[in-house]
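Example S7 (structure tokens).
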């Protein structure tokens, strides 16, 4: 089987993009987890803002669908609102 230069380059690019995408998804999951693990409202505000920012950036870059982002933001917002009571 032939190995064309374009195919070799494509595989190289795919590995690079896969590593970047995996890192971005991992950062997002960690940000969400940090919000959900907090039990104090005042301590949860900063991680909440960071998580919403990360999710919005993922949508703008095309790494996450709009409805998925809305669901994840809704989940952490519900948790944050439950801490107020």
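Recovered sequence:
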């Amino acid at each position: 089987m032939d190995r064309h230069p374009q195919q070799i380059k494509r595989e190289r690019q795919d590995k690079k993009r896969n590593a970047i995408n995996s890192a971005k998804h991992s950062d997002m999951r960690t940000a969400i987890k940090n919000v959900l693990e907090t039990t104090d409202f005042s301590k949860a505000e900063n991680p909440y803002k960071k998580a919403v920012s990360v999710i919005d950036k993922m949508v703008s870059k095309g790494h996450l669908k709009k409805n998925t982002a809305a669901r994840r933001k809704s989940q952490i917002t519900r948790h944050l609102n439950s801490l107020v009571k």
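Notes on this example. Residues 27 and 77 are 18 Å apart (CA to CA).
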